[in-house]
Amino acid sequence: GPPADIWAVGVLLFTMLCGQFPYRGATDEELYDKIQRADYKIPSEVLQYLSAEALDLITCLFTINADDRISAR
After folding, report:
1. pLDDT tens per residue, range 45-61
2. How many CA atoms lie within 13 A of 24 on its CB side?
3. Cβ–Cβ under 8 Å, residues 59 and 53
């Protein structure tokens, strides 16, 4: 539903801003574990160019609890 769509927007935004996917794992299990914990790292070579607002938006889009995640509204 909509909370998953918002999370997907986070994946797209992260990929566009950072040039890589936010979640990667050697196995599917590792990948899913990182997704469930919102364990992503913004590359240091990109971090210096991102505004505080962009970083905050990414954090809000990747809020683990779907009920607490921002909405499109």
Report:
1. 999 999 999 999 999 99
2. 8
3. no
